[in-house]
Each structure stands twice: as structure tokens, then as C-alpha cells.
Write a structure and sequence with these properties.
Blueprint lengths: L11 H17 L3 E9 L2 E8 L3 E2 L4 E2 L2 H6 L5 E4 L8 E2 L4 E9 L2 E10 L7 H18 L8 H14 L2 H20 L4 E7 L4 E7 L19 E7 L3 E8 L12 H25 L10 H18 L3 E9 L1 H8 L1 H17 L6 E6 L2 E7 L3 H15 L5 H4 L6 E9 L7 H17 L5 E3 L17 H30 L6 H26 L2 H26 L1
Parallel strand pairs: 16-17
Antiparallel strand pairs: 1-2, 1-8, 2-4, 3-6, 5-7, 7-8, 9-10, 9-12, 11-12, 13-15, 13-16, 14-15
Helix pairs in contact: 1-3, 1-6, 3-5, 5-6, 8-9, 13-14
Length: about 550
């Protein structure tokens, strides 16, 4: 195995891989497993493996039928299918899952058991969740292994990634691994800017209080073990509450945690810079055409997997050409710059906004129905109706926008490109019907009577739980921050202090519940929902009986 740049940190990258792999196997209850990079079509290079036997070195190949199945959730294999994995003797049962961006596979995870005990449904969900987090931790270190074949796909992955989302998921995964090592429920990882102002963090249990105020060092409770990281651009604090006051159970692991944290943050900073350089329109700061199409394809792949709709909007500015012709291109650039700011401020943080070309803009709205897409389209139309800059007033010019809407559902045989074409066609109809209006163009299947909605898949439920948890954490963090600042005022009236303390405690309970929701096994959650539904139905039956 070529070490590449690994020589600067002897054995650290290999130790990091070994640590996360052992944590994965312990969590799932597997006897062996491994992680491998894809280096060719169907060929993989192991970067780590553990088994009660031998792990073969060198590149191995997966059969075509198994490779195709990796596009779906984890694949279960039974002997003799497991002989293709680099473990000797082969596993009796194994789970495989491939992770990448869009349709490109990058990392392969597998876990196995020698004994004849098949994996259960919750093991599938657990592997998917843990492997996804480990993927974010290991991606920054990909060029350390076989730099030549991995460098180009690594750069492409970096350019396609949603950086804020990846940073949060990477931090959450790193904290979970640290807590597992310490056998603790209390921990925190906090990132701050160069002035030491907290920017983003993840925490569990008692670690929640450190998200709004940095702890004093040494901490009052000797069971807390902290490590700080200093960088010219940022700083970080890693803490965990240990059973041993000396922190013996985590001391060997903390250097690996710090290295993984540094790699993750540096990669996010570099990827953000690359994204601005390669995928952003320099004038409006929206995605450029190529960047939008790439992200739209990835979003459509996720929608197909999890079963939610995607809405695409095509916005064509009305009256922009006269501005360029009469007032010149500098004024036209000023208009486009301000329009881009308005459009990006009018949608959700995770919606995609792109400049398709000239005075045309495009939007992708994940998990948005036709009704929701029309609400967004009307918001865009109303905010741009009559828009002008100072130079336009002298010649009585104004701007408006014609918007086309299309919505695709995974059940329909539709591609992301076709969905964009439908939205473009709808925008053309809006132009032809008088401009400053919204038109809809749907696939033919959507004009048929709509069948009852199918039950949600387990994958979609798991994704919704994660989304709900993250949606709760952000506003709760703001409440805790404001309450913490107010409580530092020594002149605060007693009754107001008591009220703020109650608000702070309630916010902490809400955050603890959201974290529990995110970590709870899907099977256990569904069982609790089923129990609640039975109780609700029983109460309803009793009420009807009483009325009768």
C-alpha cells in the first residue's frame, strides 16, 4: 500500500481507519468487516479490515449483479456469495453498502458473521447510518491511499458535496464514536472562529451547556476530559465525561479524534473555496449551469431512493434586454447581482438556486409538492414585480419574471433533465400568455387520478427523523444562546432570571429529545408509534361506547 503523505503523521491515518472500523463492528455485533475504495469499475482497494481469520491484501472485484445492487440500501449476502470479499474463511452472512455522490460509488463497507445468525432489519439501518458518518470522516484522507487513482474522484466528490451538511454529519459521527469509546452519554465538539466565537457544534447530555459557553479549564468536574485545537483560521474544543477521572479509556483515542477533526475542517474549508471557484456564478453567487445540473441530478437520485417529490422552477426575467441596451452592461450586471440576492433569500437554505444563462434562473426544491412549489413561485414573482435600481427610474424601466413549474415524482419514469425541460416549457408558456405570471407543466402521468399515497418506506422514515432532529436543534441552539447571554447580567430581576432558567431547562430537554430521536433505532421508534396508535384507538372506542 502506498503511504503518500501519510509519512508526515506516521501510522495515524491507518490507526484512524482501524479505530472507526472496530467501532462499527462493535456497534453492529459483527465478527469482521472492512472498508475499501473503488479504484475501477467493480474493483476495490481495501484500506482496512478486521476478521477472526485472515484478511487478503490487494485489489478485489465484486460480481456485476452485486455491484448493481449496491445502488440500493445495504445488501445482504449469504455463503457462498461472500467468497468475493477479502476475508478467509468466508463469512456465513454479510452486509454490504456502497457510498458515493450521485451515481458514483466511492467507498464500500461490509460487515460479516461466521456463525449462522443472519442480520436483522435494524442492522441494515444501523450500518447505513454509521457508515454514512464514517464516510464523512474518512473522505478527507482519501489521497493518503494510492494518491494517483484516487485524487481525481476525490476532487470531484469534494466539489459535489454539500459542505455545511457534511460538516455537521461528520462532527456528529465523530462525537458518537468518542462516546462509544468512553462508554459515556455526555460529550461535546465545538468549533469557533479565530476570535474564539462559537460557530457550530454537536453535543450530548451534559455537553449541551458547553455549546453556548466554553468551559473553564481545568473543569470543575474531574471526570470531564477536554482537548483544545488551535489553528490560524479556527479553533475547536473536544470534551467527554469519562468514568475514570484520569480519562484512561479515551486517552489513546483522543489524538485520532483530533486528527479526524482537523482533516474534516480543513477539507470543508478547501471544498468551500473550490465550490466558489468552480460551481458558482461569479456575478450572482448562484450555482452556475453545470453546478446546478450536477446538484439536480444528485437530488433526483436521493428523491428516487427515499420516495419524495422534487419541484423545479424555471424563471425568465421580463424586460431585462432593454436595460442592457439602454443603460449598458454595468447596470445590467448590477440588476442581475441584486436579483440573485433576492432569489436566494426567497427559498430554503437547502434549496438549489442556479443561473442557467443570461437572465434565466433555475430552482430545485426537494420534498416539495405542486402546491408548495406554487407558493414559492408566487413569492418569487411578487418580490421581483416592479423591481428596479436607481438607474432604471430615469428611463421608466421595470422588471418582472415569468416562471415555469414542474414537479417530478420517483414513481414516474422521468429524468432530472426531462423535469428541467418541462419547467422551461412552462416558462415559455408564461411568456407567451403575457409575462409576469406562473404556468405549470406536469408529466402526463400527473394528470391521471391520483392514487392513495403509499406507506412510507423505512429509509424515508429514518431520513425524516434525522431531518426533524436537525430542524429542532438549530432554533433551540439560538434560544439557549440568548438565554445564556441574558443570565450573565448580574442586575437581572429575580423573577425574570427564574423565567429564563425555566426556558433554558425546557430548551435543553427539547434538544435532548431531538438527539434521542436521531439516535433511536428505527425499529424501536416504529414500535413506540404502534403502541401509541393502539392506545389512541382504544380511547376512541371507549368514547364512542360512552356516547352510545
Amino acid at each position: 500500500m502506498t503511504r503518500g503523505k501519510e509519512g508526515k503523521h506516521p501510522l495515524r491515518v491507518s490507526q484512524l481507519v482501524e479505530w472507526v472500523l472496530m467501532s462499527l463492528l462493535q456497534k453492529i455485533g459483527a465478527e469482521g468487516g472492512g472498508i475499501a475504495f473503488q479504484v475501477g469499475e467493480g474493483t476495490f482497494l481495501p484500506l482496512g479490515g478486521k476478521a477472526n481469520g485472515l484478511t487478503k491484501e490487494g485489489i478485489f472485484r465484486l460480481p456485476e449483479e452485486i455491484l448493481k445492487a449496491l445502488a440500493s440500501p445495504p445488501v445482504a449476502l449469504s455463503f457462498p456469495e461472500t467468497v468475493f470479499l477479502p476475508n478467509c474463511p468466508p463469512f456465513a452472512h454479510a452486509l454490504l453498502w456502497g457510498i458515493g455522490e450521485g451515481r458514483r460509488l466511492f467507498l464500500l463497507f461490509w460487515v460479516g458473521r461466521r456463525r449462522a445468525h443472519p442480520f436483522r432489519a435494524q442492522d441494515f439501518v444501523l450500518l447505513e447510518r454509521l457508515a454514512w458518518g464514517i464516510y464523512h470522516l474518512l473522505l478527507p484522507f482519501a489521497p493518503f491511499y494510492q494518491p494517483t487513482p484516487l485524487l481525481r474522484p476525490w476532487l470531484e466528490m469534494s466539489l459535489e458535496a454539500n459542505i455545511p451538511e457534511r460538516l455537521e454529519q461528520g462532527l456528529s459521527s465523530l462525537l458518537e464514536l468518542l462516546l462509544q469509546q468512553a462508554q459515556s452519554r455526555d460529550g461535546v465538539i465545538l468549533l469557533a472562529d479565530r476570535e474564539g466565537v462559537p460557530q457550530v457544534g454537536v453535543a450530548c447530555g451534559e455537553g449541551e451547556r458547553f455549546l453556548t459557553s466554553c468551559p473553564s479549564l481545568p473543569p470543575p468536574d474531574p471526570r470531564w476530559c477536554f482537548r483544545s485545537v488551535k489553528d490560524p483560521q479556527w479553533s475547536a474544543l473536544v470534551g467527554v465525561k469519562c468514568q475514570d477521572p484520569r480519562g484512561a479509556e479515551v486517552q489513546p483515542t483522543l489524538p485520532l479524534v483530533i486528527q479526524a477533526l482537523q482533516g474534516l475542517v480543513h477539507w470543508c474549508l478547501q471544498a468551500t473555496w473550490l465550490e466558489q471557484l468552480v460551481w458558482r456564478d461569479p456575478l450572482t453567487r448562484c450555482l452556475n449551469r453545470r453546478g446546478f445540473l450536477l446538484r439536480l441530478e444528485g437530488e433526483w437520485q436521493r428523491a428516487t431512493r427515499y420516495g419524495y417529490p422534487v419541484a423545479v422552477l424555471f424563471a425568465d426575467l421580463d424586460g431585462f434586454k432593454p436595460i442592457n441596451d439602454l443603460l449598458g452592461h454595468p447596470v445590467g450586471d448590477k440588476v442581475l447581482r441584486q436579483v440573485g440576492q433576492i432569489l436566494q433569500a426567497s427559498v430554503r437554505r437547502y434549496d438549489l438556486v442556479g443561473r442557467y444563462g443570461g437572465d434565466e434562473f433555475v430552482f430545485a426544491l426537494p420534498a416539495t409538492s405542486l402546491e408548495g412549489a406554487l407558493v414559492v413561485a408566487e413569492r418569487l414573482r411578487s418580490r421581483l414585480a416592479g423591481f428596479s435600481v436607481e438607474e432604471m427610474n430615469s428611463v421608466q424601466l421595470s422588471l418582472s419574471v415569468s416562471i415555469g413549474v414542474a414537479v417530478g415524482r420517483p414513481s414516474a419514469p422521468l429524468s432530472a433533465q426531462r423535469l428541467l425541460e418541462l419547467a422551461d416549457h412552462a416558462a415559455g408558456m408564461a411568456k407567451a400568455k403575457g409575462r409576469n405570471r406562473i404556468e405549470v407543466c406536469l408529466p402526463e402521468e400527473d394528470f391521471e387520478p391520483v392514487a392513495p399515497s403509499p406507506s412510507l418506506s423505512r429509509d424515508l422514515l429514518a431520513a425524516l427523523l434525522q431531518y426533524l432532529s436537525h430542524s429542532v436543534n438549530n432554533p433551540v441552539g439560538g434560544i439557549l444562546g440568548l438565554a445564556g447571554v441574558a443570565l450573565q447580567d448580574p442586575n437581572l430581576p429575580p423573577h425574570l432570571r427564574e423565567t429564563l432558567q425555566q426556558i433554558e431547562q425546557l430548551a435543553l430537554r427539547v434538544r435532548e429529545f431531538s438527539h434521542r430521536l436521531a439516535r433511536q433505532p428505527l425499529g424501536q421508534f416504529l414500535q413506540e408509534v404502534e403502541t401509541f396508535e393502539r392506545r389512541r384507538m382504544a380511547i376512541s372506542d371507549q368514547s364512542r361506547g360512552a356516547r352510545g
